[in-house]
Amino acid sequence: MELLCPAGNLSSFKMAIDNGADAVYVGLKNDTNARHFAGLNFTEERLEEAVAYAHDRSKKIHIAINTYAHAEQWDKWKFAVDAAAALNIDALIVADMSVLGYAAERYPDLELHLSVQASATNAGAIEYYQECFNVKRIVLPRVLSIHQVKQLARSTNIELEVFAFGSLCIMAEGRCHLSSYLTGESPNMNGVCSPASHVQWQESDGRLTSRLNNVLIDSYQPHEQAGYPTLCKGRFQIDSNTTAFHALEEPTSLNTLSLLPELFKIGVTALKIEGRQRSSAYVKQVTRVWRDAIDHCSSNMVVNDLHDWEKRLESLSEGSCTTLGAYHKSWQ
Amino acid sequence: MQYSLGPILYFWPKAQVEQFYDKAAQSEAEIIYLGETVCSKRRQLKMSDYIAIAKALADRGKEVILSTMTLLEAPSELAQVRKYCENGEFLVEANDMAAVNYLRKLKVPFVAGPALNIYNHRTLDLLLKQGMKRWCMPVELSKDKLSEILSKCDAIGIKDRFEVELFSYGHLPLAYSARCFTARSENRAKDNCELCCLNYPRGRVASSQEGQTLFVLNGIQTMSGYRYNLINDLKTMEGLVDIVRISPEAANTFEALTNFVHSNSTSLTAYETNGYWHQIAGLTPFGANLTHARVMS
């Protein structure tokens, strides 16, 4: 089972490799990838260094070119594919059909992974991408229960990559326009969700409020821990007559450690750690814990055996609170 | 310009659905989409019921399209989509690539629905070769983006080979989740939802702690809080859009349809928006001052 870790810069990249990642995924420094944040991502020069660092240590590097190409700037996505291919990277993570089509035709030997942003949640969609673009692996959206992942593994021969740890997208990725509805910028078009440029914090009368493009996302009492105003994790009222609550989702993050034995059994190819936007110290710690857990885990382990690793991960999670998300039916 | 009625996005009792299509049969809509696109637990109407309505509408001269589910997780849901694709009589709207996969293999033409991620000319070219005959663009795209895409289509010689449909009226389908937010709003899990969406024919409104309407919860679907309404933008659609889609609402759908067909401009209400078409935040009506947040009365 491959441990695939995130890196937003070269220092995180090295941390991930040094601490046990089998592969690391990165993005270019533009809006061709879904973590298009200021100060993040790789220039071509840095990418070259990263490729050498990984390959010298027999590790892999995947490049995410996983936003949807704008018609007027389609060549930007083409150049991103060309640049990645020229660097002898190990896999491209792509969502847009036109970009997949270009990569498959121009670079038939380049391994293609279907990005989570393509929202392929079923055997029919998977077959489409396999047959049309020879996609080798699919990154599953965080909407399937563990039982559904199991069913899918039985009905397709494609490699499955699942999200194991990190921020939790509660909507089917690639099928959420909530961010552009509030701010004009979205994951599909701009590679951002609830962009920092639209966030406003305000403190008055002891209350801290967070806004996104002037829309109140949450309001905190002094004793409450404030979180980044990702719009689906705000507190809202329903039909204007209830107390505000987390109508969509609490500010929790995903942690599937307790499912590790099950994921082994299913034959999942890769575990993905989310967080290209996180610090190198974070990448280092999370990578270490998951490396140890994977190395010690076997399909007959029970949840209690995983207790130590669980504890180490808890402190690294958003609001120190984690969930199994959609993998666990009761979350849905 | 042609006018269509999109699939009903909410969960209504069978009688209400039938009543709606009785009216639709007599309406000025030339194209009518039918079918459940949101949740496979919504089974007030079976496929045979939809086919019966489709036949009745076709007899009245309407072009009927069967719309298929968007978020497909269980093998049973996939099997259902396959049945719709293989119906052999009516055109199908694909809202997931699984449907596109079936339709391309059957070599039948199809409509690419708004939930497919089609953002450029080259993706359109690819789908054209697989049988797409009409494209209803993603709701977050603007007039300027559509212009760009179509001029690129022109450049590669495909602009006249498909129709363009625009979601122009109704609450916008914005997101799909494994979680049912309507069930959650009643403190239930999805497995134990008791089909509570039936109690909310308009969905449930989620608003900020300042009373600003943000979203409408419609089962696993999250919709725009404000109703999209491009009634005053019809002129700007000329040369770009072939079909204007009106999405059914629990009230006044046919009045809205009439307004569109006859270009009866009206000012938007405090709960309507046209932001996306103008390439601004979806909830901001064009021309409105951003800092002037609209608050529920």
Query: What is the mean pLDDT of chain A?
Result: 92
Name the CATH superfamily assignment of the largest domain in chain A: Aldolase class I
Write down the domain tally of chain A. Answer: 2
* Residue fraction in strands of chain A: 15-25%
Give Rg of chain B in angstroms: 19 Å
Helix content of chain A: 25-40%
Structural class of chain A: alpha/beta
Write down the secondary-structure element order of chain B: EHEHEHEHEHEHEHEEEEHE
Q: Write down the CATH class of the largest domain in chain A.
A: Alpha Beta
Can you walk through the features of this model?
The complex is a heterodimer of chains A (332) and B (297). In chain A, helix 1 runs parallel beside helix 2. In chain A, strands 1-2-3-4-5-6-7-14 form an eight-stranded parallel β-barrel, surrounded by six helices. In chain A, 53% of the residues are buried. Chain A is built from eleven helices and 15 strands. Chain A has helices spanning 10-18, 44-56, 74-86, 97-106, 123-133, 146-155, 178-183, 187-190, 260-266, 280-296, 307-314; strands at residues 2-6, 23-27, 60-65, 91-94, 112-114, 137-139, 159-167, 171-176, 199-204, 207-212, 215-220, 237-238, 253-255, 270-273, 322-323. Chain A has two domains: 2-168 and 252-331, TIM Barrel (Alpha-Beta Barrel); 186-251, no CATH class. Chain A starts with a strand and ends in a 9-residue tail after the last strand. The mean pLDDT of chain A is 92. In chain A, helix 5 links the parallel strand 5 and strand 6. With 332 residues, chain A is α/β, with parallel strands linked by helices. Chain B is α/β, with parallel strands linked by helices. Chain B has a single domain (2-171, 225-270), classed as TIM Barrel, CATH 3.20.20. Helix content of chain B is 28%, strand content 22%. Chain B contains eight helices and twelve strands. Chain B has helices spanning 14-26, 47-59, 75-85, 97-106, 121-129, 143-155, 181-185, 253-261, and strands spanning 2-5, 31-34, 63-67, 91-94, 110-112, 132-136, 163-177, 204-207, 213-218, 221-229, 243-246, 272-273. In chain B, strands 1-2-3-4-5-6-7-11 form an eight-stranded parallel beta barrel, surrounded by four helices. In chain B, helix 1 links the parallel strand 1 and strand 2 (31-34). The longest helix of chain B is centred in the first third of the chain and has 13 residues, at 14-26. The model of chain B is unreliable at 289-297 (pLDDT under 50). Chains A and B meet through helix 4, helix 5, helix 6, strand 8 and helix 7 of A and helix 3, helix 4, helix 5, helix 6 and strand 7 of B. Strand 8 (171-176) of chain A pairs antiparallel with strand 7 (163-177) of chain B, so a sheet runs across the interface.
